[in-house]
Amino acid sequence: MPDTPNAACHPQSIRDVVESGLCIGCGLCQALAPDRWRMTMTVEGRLRPAPLKPANPGADAEILRACPGAFVEASAGGTKSDMVWGSYTHMAEAWAGDADTRFRAATGGVLTALGAHLLRSGKAKFILHCAADPERPMRSKWMFSETPSQVVARAGSRYGPSDTLSGLEAALERQQPFGIIAKPCDATAVRARAKDDPRIDQHLVALLVMVCGGASDLGKSQALLDEYGLTEDELTVFRYRGFGNPGRTRLETKDGRAFEKTYQELWEDESGWRIQTRCKLCPDAIGEAADIAAADIWPGGTPTGEDAGLNGVIVRNDRGQALFDQAVAAGDLVPGKDHGPRDYDDFQPHQVAKKRSLAARLRGLAAAGHPVYRHAGLRLDDLDAANKDQEAGSEMRAGAGRFSEAMPEKTTVPDASDSAQE
């Protein structure tokens, strides 16, 4: 791949991906090989594939071809292109046409509104996405939503681990048109998998993502429970955002107590974010493989208070543009003013910094003999800021084992990733 660092080594197995800290727990392993892999919550609070059988790298080759810890590629279906923000057809702001959806969902409810529109219009029979686990609401669970009301009821950001793609094979087996709402890394996996599985292009009608700041491990959420002296089995609600923009994080218990933190209070201490390693090395957190990506658009990158909520929308290709236009015509989305790439530089400055630092970080990993993913079309070499501190820091951390993880032990016990297919 032309963008991949020279002399870099690449993961040769699922074990390599996990032990190198390149796994994001998307669930693709379990979807494609449920007899060999089961998604398991580790003691660190990360969803990782645990082996059910002895290693068989040859049998897992098809997984590795699509694994976002092994390969990441941009799509180029737009009519315009920007060095930082990639290929796109349209940048604008929008919000859900339904006031309740706009209020309940994170930011302006664009992804929720688009999912509901796909179902309401009959373009999709169901949406594959994740939502709070009804039995363990601090955790996320992949779901099939078949009605607009289900999509709205399950709205809201999920900042902890999520394995939405554990449901991909089950979705394809239904042989019905469907949409996906997921993370950018999930979208890259779906696009790569489509090269081997023609059912994806046949049945997937929309691939929708949020512009992602990184997925925390479950320890971030557990720390909040510890602060309030709660245990996970006391919870009935763990809402990360929504019910306003950005909305408060809210916990409710079985005995009627409630606890809240503002967005700023929850995220003010960056050292406590507990962002997973793969996110720190993510070459595409902006949804370049999606049809539509929705973003927070706070000037300077930080909210200053609560408001009615609106999203930035990056339409990536003609299919995404047609969906956006149809949702607006139906009243399911309300469009605001148009934007350009430099507006997004201001709204999401950390994404710009990450894009410009990735080449140096990957060089540092390669210099330490640490595996890196293959990547193509993401312009990392062109954006390279040649930051020697980033390069040296990555080499030092990799050499010290800071990016490494232990592979979960062999398991035969069902875990949190079992789905709710409703």
UniProtKB/TrEMBL annotation:
One of its GO terms (molecular function) is 7-hydroxymethyl chlorophyll a reductase activity. It holds the Pfam family FrhB_FdhB_N. InterPro entries: 4Fe4S_Fe-S-bd, Co_F420_Hydgase/DH_bsu_N, FRHB/FDHB/HCAR-like, FrhB_FdhB_C. GO terms for biological process: chlorophyll cycle. Coiled coil: none annotated. It comes from the Bacteria. Residues 14-44 form the 4Fe-4S ferredoxin-type domain. Residues 387-422 are annotated as: Disordered. PANTHER family: 7-HYDROXYMETHYL CHLOROPHYLL A REDUCTASE, CHLOROPLASTIC. This is Coenzyme F420-reducing hydrogenase subunit beta.
